[in-house]
Amino acid sequence: ELFRRWNFHEPDKMDAARKAFYSFFQKSSLLFEDAADVLSAIRKKGCRLGALTDVAYGMDREYALGSIAGLEEYFDVVLTSIDVGFRKPNIAGYLQLAARLNTVPADFIFVGDEEKDIVGANGAGMISVLIDRQGRNLDFGQKHTVSSLKGLLELV
Question: How are the residues of the chain apportioned to helix, strand and coil, as percentages rounded to the nearest 5?
Fold first, then answer.
């Protein structure tokens, strides 16, 4: 839409322009050292895993998933705020994620590291878990707090 408003109509340069624009908003993901083992262990317990991530408005799914490259293999479902039509903490995304994973919100453990993650999970009726790797002792109304993903193994 921005390119149209700017009268930018050069199809051969459009993809490069979009990548340059989105790269400003796009963050890189970091796989913590405990993630692969813990996510694999949770899967072995028969749990399905999903991710809900906020992305810049209008960002294509291709670009959005680029920021979590290398992590998708650990999840059965990955939804972005563009996919669900709302950003966190709107409960619509949480409910869509639960539905896609064939579970009810009350049986869903949602892990996040920001207030909006916890507020949305609580609003959707999920079990909210704050991952607080820095030991900040934050209280956003979460049902549980863990200092690493290993703490999830006790909750699953």
Answer: 45, 15, 45
How far is the CA of 150 from the CAs of 13, 126, 130, 156, in angstroms? 45, 20, 13, 11
| pTM summary value | 0.81
Cis peptide before 105 (omega within 30 of 0): no
Task: Report the C-alpha gap between 68 and 23 in whole angstroms.
Answer: 13
Cα atoms in the Cβ-side hemisphere of radius 13 Å centred on 116 = 10
Do you know the residue count of the chain? 156
Q: Assess contact for 129 and 144: CB atoms under 8 A.
A: yes
Neighbours of 149 (CB within 10 A): 21
Instruction: Tell me the average pLDDT across 132-155.
Output: 96
Residue at token pair 């639960």: 98
Q: Which pLDDT tens digit goes with each residue over 24-48?
A: 665 666 678 888 899 999 999 999 9
- Half-sphere exposure (CA, 13 Å, Cβ side) for 57? 3
